[in-house]
Design brief:
The structure is a single chain. The protein starts with 10 loop residues before the first helix and ends with a strand. The chain has a single domain (5-345), classed as Endonuclease/exonuclease/phosphatase (Deoxyribonuclease I, Chain A, 4-Layer Sandwich), CATH 3.60.10. By secondary structure, it is α+β, with helices and mostly antiparallel strands. The protein is built from 7 helices and 18 strands.
Length: 346
């Protein structure tokens, strides 16, 4: 297992804690444990098998993308490399939990967690089939060594006046992260091509789900994550969902968006027409921000390592994706992953 740079010389300690480590706080003489929670839009993780229930024709060996087993395997290996390295400067061995979007089915998830270097890290899967017109779903991978699953539900988005609209469900997973109860809501909101009103409805559903969790659990620690197809400053996020960008604006049982400041600093997770967006976000409930015990928020990051960036050509500087301009480039995704670092006193 790769040891994080910060913990060289502490190999035995890192091995025993696996994805948790002990570090010395700068301002206080206290020891902490750390964990990472992440989200990644993996961009069209399709297998090579024709599924009549999904729109997967372009991702078949004789389809427009010439999606062969070799290309599929390369995609799995690339994604496994990325996921295992997310947050490695803080915690080695991959995130404790990671939400995923644009996956075709459970089978591709099984293939992914059995691909080195993820194989052997012990990830398990939460996944439900959704009615999305393209046949892609959201899912959650988690490590049972540090996260004990309690329950999960898949929640359908209904758009008033448009009963035939089909998109991804919102996945709610509750469990105990090293003994501390948390809930994760995994999203992939409707595309910008469908109009903002559809994302407003998705935001309302996310807010309803988080409010229900807050009613069920006092001081509920909630993580709303996903590709929201909107930036942290857009109305769907700031007004409909009600996520605040500044900690002092967050009221009791409110929501805080740590990605807001990253976006204001010019950091993005995807690029379009030479402009950066930060559609990939992880939003937290107030108890995660202000926790006096258990896990609390420490840092938010975009995982934009150099190997994930296109080095030349018309898309230089963009995320290095699997296809660009209709040509196979053998990359990773058109999105960078995002993640949070959580800490708690040891």
């Amino acid at each position: 297992m790769k040891i994080s740079r910060r913990n060289k010389g502490r190999g035995l300690l890192v091995f025993l804690l696996f994805i948790l480590f002990t570090f010395q706080a700068c301002a206080q003489d206290k020891k902490f444990l750390a964990a990472t929670i992440a989200f990644y839009n993996v961009e069209n993780l399709f297998d090579t098998i024709d599924d009549p229930r999904t729109n997967d024709a372009e991702f078949l060996p004789d389809g427009s993308n010439r999606w062969t087993q070799k290309r599929y395997q390369a995609k799995l290996e690339n994604l496994a490399k990325v996921i295992s390295g997310i947050g490695s400067e803080f915690v080695s061995g991959g995130p404790a939990v990671i939400g995923l979007s644009e996956i075709e089915n459970r089978g591709v998830l099984e293939d992914l967690i059995n691909t080195p270097p993820l194989k052997g890290l012990g990830y398990e899967i939460v996944h439900y089939d959704s009615p999305d017109s393209r046949g892609v779903d959201v899912a959650l991978l988690y490590k049972p060594s540090v996260f004990r699953l309690v329950n999960s539900t898949s929640n359908r988005l209904h758009v008033p006046g448009n009963p035939h609209f089909r998109t991804r469900d919102q996945l709610v997973v509750t469990g105990k992260l090293h003994g501390d109860l948390i809930s994760v809501i995994v999203n992939h909101w409707p595309s910008r091509g469908s109009g903002p009103e559809f994302r407003y409805e998705a935001a309302r559903l996310s807010r309803q789900l988080s409010d229900s969790l807050m009613k069920a659990h006092s001081n509920a620690k909630i993580f709303i994550m996903g590709d929201l197809n909107d930036d942290p400053v857009d109305r769907s996020v700031t007004k409909v969902l009600g996520a605040k960008g500044k900690p002092n604006e967050v009221k009791k049982n409110g929501l805080f968006n740590p990605m807001w400041q990253l976006y204001r600093n010019g950091i993005g997770s995807l690029a379009y027409r030479d402009a950066w967006n930060l559609f990939d976000q992880i939003i937290i409930s107030e108890p995660v921000l202000n926790a006096t015990d258990g896990w609390r928020f420490h840092k938010a990051r975009v995982y934009n390592e150099k190997f994930l960036i296109q080095k030349d050509g018309p898309y230089a500087g963009y995320p290095l994706r699997t296809f660009a301009g209709g040509a196979y480039t053998g990359g990773y995704s058109d999105h960078f992953p995002v993640y949070l670092v959580l800490i708690r006193e040891k």
